[in-house]
Amino acid sequence: MGDLGVGFGYLMKGQRWVAGHGRWFGFGLLPGLVTLLLYAAVLVGLSYGADDLTAWATPFADDWSSPWQGLFRGFLVVLLFALVLFLAVIAFTAVTLLVGQPFYESLSEAVDRAEGGVVPESGLPLWRELWISARDSVRILVRVALYGVLLFAAGFIPVVGQTVVPAIGFCVSGFFLTEELVAVALQRRRVDLKQRLALLRGRRMLTLGFGVPLTLAFLVPVVAIFLMPGAVAGATLMARDLTEPEHTAPEREPAPGDGAVPAPDATLVLGTAPGTTPGTAPGTTTVWPPAPGQEPQAPPRF
Predict the structure, then answer these.
(1) What are phi and psi of 191, to 5 degrees?
(2) Which of 108, 136, 211, 213 could form a disulfide with 236 if both were Cys (CB 3.0 to 4.6 A apart)?
(3) How far apart are CA 92 and CA 129, in angstroms?
(4) Closest among 112, 90, 103, 101 to 224, alpha carbons compared
(5) How far is residue 66's CA from residue 295's CA, in Å, rounded to a whole number?
(6) DSSP assignment of 259-280
């Protein structure tokens, strides 16, 4: 359970990082704003064409008398808007990451550079990175849709469907949201989708601690825009520690018995126990290399 707090800590560290690097915070806002404008254009277009779309999709209701035709098609318009908004919330991160691939790549690299160590590069052209990102996003959305169908069906179970199922739904969304965000840093480390999923399943509570609070915040798209730069920064910090644990492991001096090899110019003193080294009298000490003026001896045998 401690991993839940650690995951949430990465989310907070990412927000603090961009707050301390204001230029990168503003830089990371641009993709979210572009995505929001695209979503707004889609919703405006839908508001103008929703009536015609529902009329085209329900020709059997053309002969219905008033008010049943208006009520039925009005209900379908409301249902259509609800469905589009639901998909918009689910797909917001994937679309924003796709639109802002160059922006978030630069932000992730800046985090790596600021935290020290090697700054990995995929070595792939931009079009190839965009293709991989789009392909993996579609695969993730398909997985989310399948889970959504199962959870929707389970929602009809009395009591469980109104308590346990929504909680599971937030966990599923949080897990895949985290995957999409760490993909920015892990793609540069040549970690593919299958490996990323295995890596996150191995630290499931850590993943949920990062993704579930973010999912709850992302239910409000405007809030998501302001949290995205910090989310990418926090996911990069998490990816660093998941794939390169030496960043966090403190160095220690080799303890006796660790198998350390002495430097070439060191003096090696071998104390021989009785009967352990053939040709050496019990209790004698062999020093190698010999001291100045001392008669050279054959090197000790190990």
Answers:
(1) -100, 115
(2) 108
(3) 19
(4) 90
(5) 118
(6) -PPPPTTSPEEEEPPTTTSTTS
Q: Is the pTM of this model over 0.70?
A: no
Query: Which SS3 state, helix, strand or coil, does residue 166 take?
Result: helix
125: helix, strand or coil: coil
And the tokens for 151? 């959870």
| 170 backbone dihedrals φ, ψ, rounded to 5° | -65, -35
Q: Are 75 and 83 in contact (CB under 8 A)?
A: no
In 209-291, beta strands by DSSP E: 268-271, 285-288
Dist CA 79 CA 17 (whole Å): 41
Q: How many residues in the chain?
A: 302
Instruction: Please determine, for residue 254, whether its predicted confidence score (pLDDT) is greater than 90.
Output: no
Cβ-proximal residues to 190 (8 Å cutoff; 6+ apart), any chain = 120, 122
Please say whether the dihedral angle defined by the alpha carbons of residues 144, 150, 153 and 154, taken in this order, is positive or negative: negative
> For position 151, what pLDDT does the model report?
81
Query: Peptide bond preceding 289: is omega within 30 degrees of 0, i.e. cis?
Result: yes
Peptide bond into 213 cis (omega under 30): no
pLDDT digits (tens, 9 = 90+) for 76-134: 787 777 777 666 666 777 788 888 878 888 899 999 999 887 777 777 777 787 788 88
Residue 28's alpha-carbon distances to 223, 224, 268, in angstroms, are 14, 12, 58
Sequence-distant (≥ 6) Cβ neighbours of residue 197 within 8 angstroms: 179
| Both structure tokens of 125 | 């052209």
Cα–Cα distance between 109 and 17 in angstroms, integer?
13
Q: Tokens representing 165?
A: 């199922």
Q: What pLDDT score does 283 carry?
A: 46
